[in-house]
Amino acid sequence: MTRYRIEHVTTYEYDADVTGSFGQFHLTPRDLPWQTVLEHRVGVEPGPATLLSHTDLYGNTKSSFHVTDPHTRLVVRAVTQLDVVPPVLPPEALAVAWEDARPAVRTEEPDAWEAADFTFASPYVDVPAAVEAYARESFTPRRALGEAATELMHRVHDDFTYKPRSTIIGEKVVDLLVKRHGVCQDFSHVMVAGLRSLGLAGRYVSGYLATRPPPGRPRLVGADASHAWVGVWVPGAGWLHLDPTNDRLTDASHATVAWGRDYGDVPPVRGVIFTEAKHSSMKVSVDMAPAA
Amino acid sequence: MTVVDSPLNRYLDAARQPDAEQAGAPVDAERGAAFDELAAPDGTPRPAWAALVDDLARATDDLASARREVARLLEDDNVTYTPSPTSAHSVADLREESGAAQPALEQPRPWRLDPIPLVLHDREWATLEAGVVQRAELLDAVLADLYGARRLLARGQLPPAVVLDHEEYLRPVVGAEHVVDQRLFMTAADLGRDATGAWKVISDRTQAPSGAGYAMQNRRVVSRVLPEIYHAAHLHRLTPFFQAMRVALVESAPSTVEDPRVVVLSPGTHSETAFDQAFVASLLGFPLLEGSDLLVRDGRVWMRVLGRLEQVDVILRRVDSTWMDALELRGGSRLGVTGLLECVRQGTVSVVNTIGSGVLENPALLPFLPDLCERLLGEPLRLPSVDTWWCGDREGLAYVRGHLDELVVRAVNRGAGRSVVGSALSRDQRERLLARIDAAPHRFVGQEVLPLSSAPTVPDDTDAGGALVRRSVVLRSFAVRSGSSYTAMLGGLARTNDEHATDRGALVTAPDGGVAKDVWVVSSEPVPASRSASTRSRADEGSAIAPGAAAAAMVPRVLSDLYWFGRYAERAEDLLRIVLVSRTVMLETDADVRPGHALDVLLRAVTHVSTTYPGFVGALGPDGSLAERRAAVMPELRSLLLDRRRAGSVAQSVAALGATAQGVRDQLSEDVWMVLADVERALGTLAGQPRDQGLHLVEAGERVLSGLLALTGIAGENMVRDPGWLLLDTGRGLERALQVLSLLRATLVDSYGPDVDRVVVEAALTSSESIVTFRRRYRGRSGVSAVLELMVLDPSNPRSVAYQLQRMQADLRAVPSTSPTARPLRLLDNLAEQVRTADPVALATVTRPDDGADADLPARRDALEAFCAELHAGLRDLSTAIRDQYHEPPPTQQSLPRQQALRRGPGAPRETLTDDSQIGLGAVVPQRFAGAASERRAGGAR
């Protein structure tokens, strides 16, 4: 078991007064069999007139706020303390032939209909023919699901170059397949699209990853960012989570915040502001440190 | 008594002898003898029509004139429909790739209505009605489940692919307690008959059903064209439906609210069914608002009224769901209310139909309805749907592939394109469609092609004594919530296919194209009068359901529209007057256009006053030869009346007048539309006389002028003195003051000597409607100072500047929440002071040109010029101050930059996201104006 303290600060600055700011955030980590949230709080500055939370259809905590004090700077700060253990799935569940892991053919499973929600194209995950061809190289007939999914993860990791600022939010999978570079969100969207192209349920997971500093260097506070990875439905056992950006299954260094069909279902913070400002900037800082 | 040779009787005769094809009434060979609404197979009228048919035959004896009369009445009420450019492509067409140009905005088109109603007997109707009501209950139960417990999905009673891949299944709404409470408020169904005459549902309309207003409008027009028949028929009225709707809206309010405020939310005047929205709002007596009129604060929805906020409890939504909240639904939308969804979730406001209700329009649900009806309502489905095969199951897909030529193919998602008739596809289209179906079979259905019934219809190109033609009919029924069940409209909106129908197949479900019909549900017995003993308006029906409650919503947009209504009306009137006067002077002076002569001064004044430069001061000015200048006068005057694209022209002001009136339709007397229609007709007549030498110009000008005077009369005599009226009147006053000053400046500052001055002064006074007073009061005097006294300083002359200032002061002081120190009032005080202290004799003093200057140069009244310029600038400031005070524009809405998930694994280079612009996120901030119009269209409910 590993205990972490996570601080995620998002700061927006504007060149003129913002007279109203509506925001929605997904910053509250989930309680899961492999993750226990010990403490969590979110603060918004200036103090919001309203701040409300509810649980969405996927079980995520969604919060929305409305700041009405005029401001040129908005800060959303989330602080969490949580414990994580490496998630485990029974090996026999992962040995299922991938064709038999498609929700449409496993209607006897009580959660198959919910998994089916992750088999369709979604606003940020198009499923072009090219992505099916790409995925099929790993998903050969009757191959074990765990093996095939892991290989797809390897290939996405190897074929795509991690390159910040090279893509926009909402970059289409069809374009990513040509560009072959992006950030973890893009890696995840490509892999999710590959799974869905075969009728498998693939979901997008938003969270944090604990980092080790390079040897001999101190850990830099606040240098981390939010992270994203992929889940694939395993009939009868839940979900297998894979991190194509780092080419490994998720473990005790992955803290899960929220999941959905794609980035658009669970962005860390999004908002609409009322202002005559011409320019706005955003700074994000995430710090995930081992806690006592 | 039978009228032997009328079009209607000939239609009946033709039905008896289907082989003998009457001209214009061919029986479609492929469809065989489809069910005809009027004629039974033996050529006798069906029971519902029996009592009406002779009168109807007589009344429609002259089809051309009946049709003209209908068109005129619709024009008088400005009943329009704006075709949607997005409905142009079908599921089998090539799609434009991204980056394609935005489709051009369509102009509103006149609503088309056939004089002959569709007549149904109430015995038949009772069956249909029970089916429509049951269907509404069923859809409501399905909706509640899909957004609530989701048992249908969990238990496999609905395949996930039917629901979860539908574009209108809105996940942010799923599970929200209060959303489920609101459920389905209103539903419509498009119905057609099969070969046996039985009704089947072609599609359900649950997003934000349109057409109830058109149905009422159809009734009003037809009842005026066929008054005797209308009153003799034992006809069920439509009014009770709107009464039920009103009650249901009030009852939709959150339970804690006692006297709920209900509003109708429209995507704006550019939307397809803008007329329908505005008409329903005024029928119900609820304000018609747009998204910018509303805002969220403290977890509630408010409307901005005269600088304060009033809570809104119920929103009748005519904006499509996905556009309703820029925060949680479609980012960048300005049609809805940002933050609305959270209010809905908290139960502080009710939105009907509830957000997400469009999921029920999914045609893939149709095959499941019989089973769902048994499960959810415990009874068999009364009203069948057209046979529908969902390609998401193997058998359905095989059937559709194998029978494509017999089917209509519809995409499950409306955004994927309109449906197509398989047999009408080209080879390319067919292959493209099949490939699309194979790629995502669950996104398509095949449906049987209903034969549809035929009904006698007046063809477009009919002339007197012409024949009726058989046209296919689709009927839209409406049901609105009533307690725990639904009430159906006793009537509906029927549409027949038009001459362009072939390329759409027999489908007339799209409201574009096609000609509407009024739907008469008749009884064999007299129908008891509707429960409310409403006063009989001119058409018996359709006056406001709750006139007392039609309290105007003085939101900034409405105040702004009314203010500009006043300004445009005055602007058009003033230009017309001076144009007419110039024309008179032209006749009197034998078109003497020499520079420095009276006509020349006046024509230049026309250009100055209307700011239609260069006009008579530019290329038409003193440079050209006299003959050229003379020849150019009439075309320029015509252009000033007719050229709609020319800012400042009469036509442009009239068009702007119509546009502002459209935005506040619920605030204005219906007579306004009749007047505007006549003004447009007068301009149209003039446009049709390109070689006119001035006779038609004067005639049309006088007609337009009398129309504009009628508007003044309507505003003066028929409008409540609410803040809207006060702003309208302020707009009029401000524009008139500006116009008077421009006119005086253009005619009096330069002096060309007593002879010219005399003519010019008379013309200016005539054009300002002050010549009679002037002659009486200043008998013999013709000095400029007297003119200034009358036209600027005299507060008792309703055409003077001083009068306008007083009028605006009185108006604005009466607007609630206007403090005595508000900027507009302070500016008015200053202006009034300037005018009061002006010395007309000093202003009229002529400064002689310097010695040695060109003798042709006019003498100038420099003091007058400075005075006019100063007042003019003051009035401009006033206009800005009024805008800031009452029309305060909502602040610009932008999306926040979004953060990318960017973490990379241990040991990897560290990346910190610092500036959104570096990663191209600047693009998420919507442009303020780009696409606003097309957005309005796209978000518009159908």
Automatic annotation (TrEMBL), chain A:
Keywords: Hydrolase, Protease. The keyword DNA-binding does not apply. SUPFAM superfamilies: Cysteine proteinases. The keyword Coiled coil does not apply. It holds the Pfam family Bact_transglu_N. GO terms for biological process: proteolysis. InterPro entries: Bac_transglu_N, Papain-like_cys_pep_sf, Transglutaminase-like. Residues 176-246 form the Transglutaminase-like domain. One of its GO terms (molecular function) is peptidase activity. This is Transglutaminase-like enzyme, putative cysteine protease.
TrEMBL record, chain B:
InterPro entries: ATP-dep_Glu-Cys_Ligase-2, CP_ATPgrasp_2, DUF403. Residues 554-886 form the DUF403 domain. Transmembrane segments: none annotated. Residues 117-496 form the Circularly permuted ATP-grasp type domain. It comes from the Bacteria. Gene3D superfamilies: 3.30.1490.270, 3.40.50.11290. Residues 1-30, 885-922 are annotated as: Disordered. This is Uncharacterized conserved protein, circularly permuted ATPgrasp superfamily. It comes from Microlunatus flavus.
